[in-house]
Amino acid sequence: MTDKPKSFSESSSESSAESFEELGPVLEKYGKVKGSLISILQKTQDIYGYLSLDAINYIAIKTGIKPAKIYGVATFYTQFRLKPIGKNLIMLCQGTACHVNGSKVIEEAVCEHLNIKDGETTEDGIFTINNVACLGCCSLAPVMMVKNSDGDETYGNLTKESAKAALDEIKERG
Amino acid sequence: MRIVVGEGSCGIATGAKKTAIEFEKQIKDRKIKNVTVSLTGCVGTCFLEPIVDVYDDDGKMTRYTKVLQAKVNDIIESHILNGKVVEDYEISEKDSTFVGKQTRIVLRNCGIINPEIIDEYLAIGGYEATKKVITSMTQEEVIEEIKVSGLRGRGGAGFPTWFKWDAARKSPETPKYMVCNADEGDPGAFMDRSVLEGDPHSLIEGMTIGAFAMGASEGIIYVRAEYPLAIHRLEIAMDQARERGFLGKNLFGSGFNFDLRIKAGAGAFVCGEETALIASLEGERGMPRLKPPFPAQKGYWQKPTNINNVETFANVTWIIMNGGKAFGAMGTKLSKGTKVFALAGKIKKGGLVEVPMGLPLKEVIYGIGDGIKNDKAFKAVQMGGPSGGCIPAELIDTPVDYENINKTGAIVGSGGMIVMDEDTCMVDMARYFLDFTRKESCGKCNYCRVGTKRMLEILERITAGDGKDGDIELLQELAYKIKEGSMCGLGQTAPNPVLTTIKYFRNEYEDHIYKKKCTARACKGLLTFTINDKCIGCTLCSKKCPVEAIEGKVKIKHVIDQDKCIKCGKCEETCKFGAIERY
């Protein structure tokens, strides 16, 4: 394993405490409400784009929930990421309807076009690819959704060409 | 005049937002008066999106389909300014039968009202049912009405709704919780999303009525985080309902309090299971626990909790207003009312189809869905997602109700209906679903955690061309053990896609294993690519081949070296003359 996450003891929570200012209001709102861990993690990911070990440690200190438990929850749900993502998150739908209509071919084309695999980020930090279970636009299969700071856009009835063209267009937009 | 643009997720994906903006822009630029542009949810005819309805002042509605930006100008010039319908863009008579042949209860308001404006919902009798229940009925009367209707849970298990409500009502502890499962995790079903986006108030009403019947004052809607638009519209609807006094304290002056909040799920299929969903609501890993105690006794924070699915709640208002008897008059003896199906896959007209229970599959696929894409041969329909199974073409006359579908080995489930044609490999389908359940298994039960992985490995081997004698039997053995050895529905049903495909398409498994052939020509590992006489020797394929397996000189027919070929299909994509054959 090359990308082994550093251990909890290695990540010093003392020194990183001040860098999580944005979490203040989130923890104030949810910190003491029992059963709010998932909401806290969702907000944290909204702010930083992913859940760093430092962030997990910081939340642990502030809420009193053990870091191991937070890590357990974070790795259980597919929504949470422990690594940073690119500017645009490409969610490639692998739902049943998309599968039947050739989502694998689209995945191959997109991966080849960007030269990365599922879960990876391009070197320039513009795109991250994630295969997702179902986006619920089954009649437009195959489908992908691209998420960035402007919101999200869904692209339906994809062909290899239209998927690549859509990504090129996003890249040009900057 | 009113212009209404269908802005469900599907509509937006095909460009509905751009269409709406263009209408607004043109109306403003041309200074047209007395014409409004508004939005509505998904009408369910996804294959015709974006859909625009124009309501004339006398109430006449004209439906235009596939209205991309470019068509806006014509509609404005002709219809809006000169009162002349643009017939070329109007929905064809044939297409309008897609909705015309359905019986819409759950989807009654989807694609008709603006989900972001509560007044439109009120204008068609919204919140009358809640008022009726709270001001003039007892808890027992409400539950009796639901019992008479025969409504069963639409999330998959088909458990009688009244029974769950009654159990929660009788549970002595307080407070009680009403939970809506809007974590539509079945890949291939999207009816809940459509209701959330198109008619959120009917969900709020259904939950309020249920909460009244069981005596809950707090409700939680557990929604998939992948449905941002649904969450957005729900929030708007809840705010508006609160403003009008339909949510909050002392509803209709009765002293009954009920309020709702949204909890966004974080992506875990197993959270469709009640106890796992409750664990997730409590901020834990979504892992199921043994039942009993049932959630009706010990649920959210160990208090009585009732969980129903979105579609179930969407039926409630209709039942209260029209009576349980009217609802029970539809459907079959044991499966009452209607069911919404998400028709997708290799189908000509995909979308949401709501029909009375008991309608034959054929009627849904051919009568409403208009048959198979490109008129290919119908092979099977997958129902019930990863927990369901494939129903083969010869059983196309099966009535769609809980009992008859169960008999085939599939389940009604949440209502996903994925149509497959001759090009779909059934072994690959089984592999696809096992890959899904293997990833989604929470890991608590050994058989589910390890068993699905072992089954997937066997299926991967078979589809790669390395299947061996005894694999089918081993799959079956594992399947039955996993069913027996798993605690929750996920593991108990995970082997169904494999068992049904072995039952109906054993020959395909045997072809893969013994003849090393995939008759659907879908499993790449089993394909052979060759070049036929159409080849003119353009050399393009040989340049594109990543492993230099294609040899040949300019203007002379090329040959593929089968020993080198990795079956990537690059040559087939590149060839402009149809000279590459796969078999």
Could you characterize the architecture of this molecule?
The complex is a heterodimer of chains A (174) and B (583). With 174 residues, chain A is α+β, with helices and mostly antiparallel strands. Chain A folds into two domains: 17-76, Orthogonal Bundle (Arc Repressor Mutant, subunit A); 88-173, Glutaredoxin (3-Layer(aba) Sandwich). Chain A contains eight helices and four strands. A four-stranded mixed beta sheet of chain A has the order 2-1-3-4, with helices on one face. In chain A, helix 2 (23-30) runs antiparallel to helix 3 and helix 7 crosses helix 8. The longest helix of chain A is centred in the C-terminal third of the chain and has 14 residues, at 160-173. Residues 1-17 of chain A have low confidence and may be disordered. By secondary structure, chain B is an alpha/beta fold. Chain B contains 23 helices and 18 strands. In chain B, the strands form five sheets. Chain B has a five-stranded mixed beta sheet. Chain B has a five-stranded mixed beta sheet with strand order 11-10-14-12-13. Chain B has a four-stranded mixed beta sheet with strand order 2-1-3-4, with helices on one face. In chain B, helix 6 packs across helix 13 and helix 10 packs across helix 13 (310-322). The longest helix of chain B is centred in the C-terminal third of the chain and has 20 residues, at 496-515. Chain B starts with a strand and ends with a strand. The model of chain B has no long low-confidence stretch (mean pLDDT 94). At the A-B interface, helix 3, helix 5, helix 6 and strand 4 of A face helix 1, strand 10, strand 14 and helix 17 of B.
